[in-house]
Specification:
single chain; about 450 residues; mainly beta; Immunoglobulin-like; 3 domains; 14-stranded antiparallel β-sheet; 5-stranded antiparallel β-sheet; about 40% strand; elongated; signal; Ig-like_fold; secreted
Amino acid sequence: MQNGSQEQKSNRDTQSSRRSVLKGSLVAIGMGGSLSGVAAGKGGKGKKGGGNGGETGYAGAGPYDPAGEGECSDGYKSQVFSLWAGQDNDAGTVTLSSDKDNIYVTYDTNESADLKEVHVDIYSTADAVPDKRPAPGQADYKAENLYSDAYTVTVPFADLGETVECGDDYYVIAHTALASDDGRDNDEDADSDLSNDGETAYAGGSKSALEDGKGAWFYVAEYTIVCCLHDIKGSVYTDTDSSGSFDEDESGWGGITVTLEDDAGNVVATTTTNTDGTYTFGDIPGGEDYSVVVATPDDYVGTQNSGGYEITDLDADLTGVDFGYTEQADTDFTYNVEADYKQETGNIKFESTSEPALGEDGRSETDTFTFTAGSEDSELTVETKNQDTVSEMITPGETVTMSNGFDVTWDSITGNNDGTYTYEFTVTSDADNTTGALSYVAFDTDAPEGSISA
């Protein structure tokens, strides 16, 4: 693999308007890996049948297509061009993409032949594109002896004397020389018709050559930097009526930290709300998944998006990503005790008689439940009830998450030196106001009948 260099540059004439890659690096990731570049081959007479091996022709003599839209990644949209062998044989695609630092030229053949060599030149204006086909071997970016189905060339904007700007156009001569792999790798083109074996190929989205129709053919791919950058906006507010929506008579909350995370939980950006509670994350790359997160302030409970706001495949500006909080009241919860409530030996139920109950209106709250029994259990069944009744097995020191929105922790079991044991549990409600409050919590023990008290 070879890189373009200053020495190569000095050995050939260049146009002053050309933005050449002088220090460019070429990234090759093995057979079938990711590559950047253009492959070029020698001119010659065409051959009958499936291809135009080594054919010399004129720009535009064969079909060419406008760029097809690719996908947004790292904030920029890729463009896909056909890779034409011998002017009009389909040999695969070349995808041009970018991030804030580089342009990537990615070849992907259709198994009619391998990439033997790739050569890439890039120009920042249409006028800088040469009239005659550049000699492939003098390309600023090149790689040889590849024999691979795919390859990506990396061209830094810094080496072009450029910085990435939305809407900028670049003109890419992406050439490759195609060949049979001759057993060098194990891909499927070894068994295909190899119709493009020995061909020279260019990525074509536009065309360029001598106006009088003389000279070797070549195509030029016109690549426009299309930015996929979006804003995410919202507010943090005091939800005085616990309605879960930002009403006109409610106030925004300034000075609150808002965090944007990627789908792996890594922090992408942080910001602080303005005095009116508003915040903005600007120029966020599209095509990715994100979460907007706000830590619940002390002595408050969340009423809107308290668990975070999930964004899947960001593809537009977002507004109204709001977070509501209401002050947590100091509430004493009252639960009456009923033993043998199931008419079964050794069961005890704590049933709410207070309003609100634990977890009312989406509050995340904790209460402690203690009872004494005449046996020492190593496990028992706990049951919680709101809209749904859920039972789980629990052991000492364990916390179980009930599917109806409660965490139950078996805090301790202590012997009382009189043949009885004291059990202590805590129950914590989630901050989701749709799951409802704790109607009752019950424990199924092995204690003898009549031996339970609370």
